[in-house]
Design the sequence.
């Protein structure tokens, strides 16, 4: 069953179904609200040390008294054990390599008190969607939500943007506006982009209040969607 991605934009979802994603992107571009442009904006802001990075600097510290708990995860999602490779080993790969409770700190996207980061290593185009307890969904379709969520890294929009050797998508909520309750993390494999991308392994990590509460490996085929993990913040 296809998970409803963005119930605040039923028109867009219906258009997806009727016309396919390219047609929707063209329509959005004509209206000056191109999803591709939104993705470029996110990527360029991050790479230039823009808003997301500045917010990270303000909010990456301790994380207050928030706690996060995994409610469920996709049966095919394989829990990953911490690597704890050492203090100098953090790389921009969607995992907390050095086990300091922060995912990919020092990379060109934000931390946050709640952080969900998706990463993969081939030419596929994967999309991250995070639905927060208010029902808002943060994704490339909507990079900022009224609840304070922000997509701070986006990769390979419609296969046309980003690197050819993998990507990262990451969403954050900050200390001054963290909705409490259940979050849903959904990954959509939009397309293979480069021929031969095919089955793609990705990692999904979730950080809450200065601790990584979940990390999974999941494998998806083109067009497949998975609700990787639900977690609760309280
Ligand atoms: Ca990392
Ligand atoms: Ca880390």
Sequence:
């Amino acid at each position: 069953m296809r998970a409803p991605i963005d119930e605040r934009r039923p028109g867009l979802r219906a258009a997806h179904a009727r016309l396919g994603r390219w047609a929707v992107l063209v329509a959005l571009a004509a209206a000056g609200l191109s999803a591709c442009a939104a993705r470029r904006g996110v990527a360029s802001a991050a790479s230039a040390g823009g808003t997301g990075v500045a917010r990270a600097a303000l909010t990456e510290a301790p994380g207050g008294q928030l706690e996060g708990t995994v409610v469920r995860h996709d049966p095919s999602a394989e829990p990953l054990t911490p690597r704890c490779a050492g203090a100098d080993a953090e790389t921009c790969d969607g995992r907390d390599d050095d086990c300091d409770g922060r995912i990919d700190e020092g990379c060109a996207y934000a931390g946050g008190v709640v952080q969900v980061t998706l990463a993969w290593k081939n030419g596929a185009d994967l999309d991250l969607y995070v639905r927060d307890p208010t029902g808002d969904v943060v994704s490339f379709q909507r990079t900022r939500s009224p609840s304070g969520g922000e997509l701070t890294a986006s990769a390979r929009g419609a296969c046309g943007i980003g690197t050819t050797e993998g990507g990262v998508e990451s969403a954050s909520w900050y200390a001054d506006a963290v909705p409490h309750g259940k979050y849903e993390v959904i990954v959509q494999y939009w397309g293979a982009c480069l021929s031969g991308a095919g089955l793609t392994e990705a990692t999904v990590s979730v950080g809450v209040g200065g601790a990584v509460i979940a990390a999974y490996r999941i494998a998806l085929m083109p067009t497949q969607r998975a609700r990787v993990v639900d977690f609760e913040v309280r």
User: Anything to note?
Assistant: The longest strand covers residues 181-191. Confidence is low (pLDDT under 50) at residues 7-63. The pocket of calcium ion (ligand 1) is lined by residues 90-91, 93, 95, 97, 104 (CB under 6 Å).
